[in-house]
Each structure stands twice: as C-alpha cells, then as structure tokens.
Write a structure and sequence with these properties.
By secondary structure, the protein is mostly helical. It is about 70% helix and about 0% strand. It has 25 helices and 2 strands. A two-stranded antiparallel ribbon has the order 1-2. α5 runs antiparallel to α9, α5 runs parallel beside α15 and α17 packs antiparallel against α23. The two termini are about 35 Å apart. About 45% of the residues are buried.
C-alpha cells in the first residue's frame, strides 16, 4: 500500500505517517462507510428493497425536488450578488475594498438559523421594526419568507461569500499586463470583460458555483426555520423530522435518505474537481499588480449602490433582530414605553442552559481547532514527503465529510458511535460525539490551507536539517511549524468561527447538557420564544463581529496569510 518515499524519509517518518493517516481516516471516512453500510445492508446482507422503498415514497421525491429547486435557485442568487461584487472589487479602482470584503465575509460567519430569524423580523405582519415604522402589513397577512421563495432568497444571501471569495481569488490572479495587451489589441468594455476576463476566471467561478450548490443543498437552519412552518420539506429537514419523531427505529430509512443527499453532493464535488482540473488558460507573468480598471465618473454611483446592497443584506436584518429583542412580546411596536431588556436578562442571566451552551460552543470550537492543527500539520508534511497510494486516496476523499450535508454526517456519527465496538458503551447523547463530528467535518478546512502552504516549501531546508542530525520532531518544531503557522492559523480561525455557531451537525447529536448556541436558538424559536431567541441571536452576532474585528485590528502584527478574508 505504501510506495517508495519521495524524499527518502526515515522509518520514524513512515511510522508517524501511518499513525496520523490512520487517525485522519478513522475520523473522516469511517462514519461515511458506516452510513453506506447501514443503508444498503440488513443483517450483513445486501438489501436493495429498502433503498427502492424509501426512494419511491412521495415524501422522499418531494423533498428531493424541493432540495434541488431551493439549492439551485439559491445558488443562482448567490452567483448574481457574489460575482457582481467580486468583479467590481477585484478589477476596478473602488475605494474601501477592504471594508467591503470584511462585510461580505460576515454572512458566512453568521449561522443560517440566525440569518433566517433576523430576516423574519423585518417582514410579515408581526415585524416589530415594521410596526414601529408604521409599515407592517395587516394582521392575518402571511409571512412571505415562509415559502420556497423565502428559502431561496436566504440561501442565496447566506452563501454569497463563497462565490465572492472563490471568484475574487481567480480574478486577482489575472496579471495587469494581460489586460493591457488586450487593450492594445483593441479590446474595450464588454468585449474585454467577455473575451479576456471571463475565460480566465471561469474555472474559479464554476468551482465556486459547485461548492455553493453543495453547501446550499445541505443547509439545515434556513429550510428548517422557514420551511417547517410552511410544510415545505427538503431532504435535510425530512431527515430531522423522521429521526426526531420516531427515534432510532428508522435509522436504516434515514441512512438511505442521507445517502441520497450524499450522492447529489458527490456529484457537486465532481463538478468542482472537473472545472478545477480543466483550466485550459494558463497565466504567465507577475500577479503582484492586480487589476484596477478606472470607473471614472461611475465610481461614486457604483460605490453607493454596493454599500446600499450591504446595508440591505446586513444592517436591516440585524436591526430587525435587535428591535424584536427589546420588546416585551413579539409583535409589540418598539417605543420608549415598550423598550425593555427583560428578554436579554432572562436568556443571558436567568437561563442556566445559555451559559452551558456558550461554554459548550467555545470549548468545542477551540478544542476542534487545536486538535485539527495538531493532526493536519504533520499529516500534510508527511504526505508531501512520503507520497503513498493510501495517502492519495485519502487526499481525494478528505473533502467528503465537509461537502456532505451536516445532517448526513450526524446520522453517520450516530450509526458509528451509538454502540462502541466490543463494548456496551455509547457516545450518543454525550458531548464527545459532537466533538468527533466537528473533527470529521472541519478537518479539510484546516488541512487544505496547510497542505497548500507545505507544497510551496523548499524540501532542501528539511534535507539540510536532517543531514546535520535533526530529529523528526526537531524538524517539525523548528522548520515546518514556523513556516506553515500563518496558513494553520488561518485554518484555525475559520474552524473556530464556523464551529462556534454550528447547528446542522449538532441538531441531531445534542442532548440535555450538551446544547450548543445554534441548537438553543433553533429550540427557542421552535417553541415560540421568539423575543428570547432574538436576544440570544443578537448576542451571538455581536460576539462573532467583535472576534472578527479583533482579528482584523491585529492584522498588522500578524504574519501575512493568518487572516482568512485577506488571503
């Protein structure tokens, strides 16, 4: 299984690679294999009748259609907004680009259940903000977001950052000299954009669209909070309702549904890989000077338009969330006589579950970031130094737990850990199952930046240290760790911020005592405590933004590459 070592690594390196690779495979691929086995076998025998029965159910077919529709059209919304911002920010001489990039990263860091909750607070007859302004629809009017259109709109807004970041990275790689040569040849305006810029960035754009579709397909928070009240089920919410309503007796049926989502997600991964490997246009020349096409007189109107969109996407929903959190009951207009902090006091200081959820979310996200850094640094380095067949297989599959919807991974973890092998013990219902699920889901978020950084290192440095007697761990500590620290730190920041507000995985894994913040908001809203849910959601948004601002303020003191949204 293990091939000849690329750089002549020692036996200690080979043993360490085997150990770390085994740990990584156990974390990421074992749950997926267990899920697959549950869905296609009964009593260790192949059972295709269950698959046929589940797939033929009308509820499954409707949920699949709804998932494809909302994910597809939501991706289209993300494409329109994200690509417009990416082209203008990356290619033109707009002012305040850093602030725009920072603002467009915020939706990616805010959990989807808060996105859904905040938008419902600025629309509908019970909107506190609209009632305060005298613009609320009459009582009895429907909430427009409790519909497929509402799910599509919010999925598009939630995942705009993915399109923006992937496309912007491709656009920033286009050398200014390439466009200048096209201009000299007579290309101007739309012709320059369509014939030169679009072909160069098409692989990045297509990969971003594929990632966005897969992410929207597995989104649980938005379809759950908007679709369940409207009786509109997608595959993730159908799985949640089946498991929550009937317990573990339907695990096999749920596993089939999870495999169905996984199959669609794998198709999305395949499309992404296809476009990333089919880039036929090769850039030659320096990329140190990014494009800055002058907008001239149109610059100010374009800047005003972009900031108005940012205001509509970020400020208005957060204002609605804040207004709802300050009234005594949902639907009461906000005024000096009705303003109260009772819901904030209740949810933050009187509800013991809130403090427990904050502790759980902080400890899980920080621990996941630290453990994944300890795994991915040696793993990426040893895989680069000792290329093996097993390593290549792992490299091709490591993205799967992240690309699969969170509910699918949660089902896989339940099946794997509900009965530990050779024992009567179980991790189901404990905080450890959530922690292991976080490790599996976010391993690739840490692994890919570190892997890219290590591939840029000159192997001569390691060989020189090895020739003078440096041990394996001395080389890891003195050479690899310092040089890859910025990429590892960027991955750790992304893991922490993403895991801190996670709901999709923990929605099926939590129990009393292991609640996370995402689960708390969903449960409060589901039980009708919308004012307290809004107060807690506003608190979480404030915490996330303060963390991002603190990281941004440290940008000048940190090495280049540490801050993800500046990379």
């Amino acid at each position: 299984m293990f091939a000849t070592q690329k750089y002549g690594g020692s036996r200690s390196e080979d043993r360490l690679l085997r150990f770390v690779l085994l740990v990584a495979i156990t974390l990421t691929l074992a749950p997926v294999l267990r899920l697959f086995a549950e869905g296609i076998t009964v009593d260790d025998r192949l059972n295709l009748s269950l698959i046929s029965e589940v797939l033929s159910q009308p509820s499954t077919q409707r949920a699949l259609q709804h998932s494809l529709l909302t994910a597809g059209l939501g991706t289209l919304v993300s494409l329109v907004i994200g690509s417009a911002f990416a082209f203008l920010v990356a290619l033109t001489d707009l002012r305040g680009k850093a602030a725009l990039v920072f603002c467009l990263m915020i939706p990616m860091m805010i959990p989807p259940q808060i996105t859904a909750l905040s938008w419902t607070q600025i629309m509908g007859p019970s909107s506190v903000l609209l009632k305060t302004l005298g613009l609320a629809p009459p009582l009895g009017a429907p909430q427009p977001l409790y519909s497929p259109a509402g799910i599509i709109l919010l999925l598009g807004i939630q995942h705009t950052s993915i399109i923006f970041l992937t496309l912007r990275a491709g656009l920033r790689a286009i050398p200014q000299e390439t466009v200048e040569a096209a201009r000299i040849s007579g290309a101007r305006g739309l012709r320059l954009w369509w014939q030169i810029i679009v072909p160069l960035c098409l692989p990045s754009l297509a990969a971003g669209v594929a990632i966005t579709f897969v992410t929207a397909l597995g989104n649980f928070g938005i379809p759950a909070m908007l679709g369940i009240p409207a009786g509109y089920a997608t595959l993730p919410t159908l799985i949640y309702q089946k498991l929550a309503g009937m317990g573990t007796t339907v695990l096999a049926e749920v596993a089939v549904l999870a495999i169905l989502i996984g199959a669609v997600a794998i198709c999305g991964i395949g499309v992404q890989r296809f476009f990333q490997t089919r880039q036929r246009v090769h850039l030659v020349g320096a990329t140190s000077r990014p494009l800055a096409i002058p907008l001239k007189g149109a610059r100010l109107p374009v800047e005003i338009t972009l900031w108005c969109v940012v205001f509509a996407l970020l400020v208005l929903p957060m204002a609605g969330l804040l207004a709802t959190s300050l009234v005594p009951a949902y639907g009461v207009p906000l005024g000096f006589d009705t303003m109260t902090f009772a819901s904030w006091h209740e949810v933050l200081f009187r509800q013991p579950v809130t403090a427990r959820a904050f502790v759980n979310s902080f400890s899980l996200s920080i621990s996941a970031a630290i453990v994944l850094m300890a795994i991915c640094l040696p793993l990426a380095w040893l895989m680069d130094r000792n290329p093996t067949r097993l390593g290549r297989i792992f490299d091709s599959l490591v993205d799967l737990p992240y690309a699969l919807p969170g509910v699918v991974l949660a089902i896989a973890m339940i099946l794997l850990l509900i009965n530990l092998p050779f024992t009567e013990a179980t991790l189901y219902g404990t905080i450890w199952i959530i922690f292991l699920a976080y490790l599996a889901r976010f391993l690739t978020v840490m692994f890919r930046p570190v892997q890219a950084s290590i591939r840029q290192l000159d192997p001569a440095m390691n060989e020189a240290a090895q020739s003078v007697g440096a041990t394996l761990f001395q080389r890891l500590r003195s050479i690899i760790l310092p040089l890859t620290a910025p990429s590892a730190a960027a991955g750790a920041i992304l893991v922490f911020l993403t895991a801190f507000n996670e709901l999709t995985v923990s929605a099926l894994l939590w129990s009393s005592g292991t609640e996370t913040l995402g689960v708390m908001i969903f449960n409060l809203d589901d039980s009708g405590e919308i004012v307290m849910a809004s107060a807690l959601a506003a608190t979480i948004v404030l915490v996330v933004m303060l963390l991002m601002i603190a990281i941004q303020l440290l940008a000048r003191q940190l090495p280049k590459g540490v801050i993800p949204w500046q990379t």
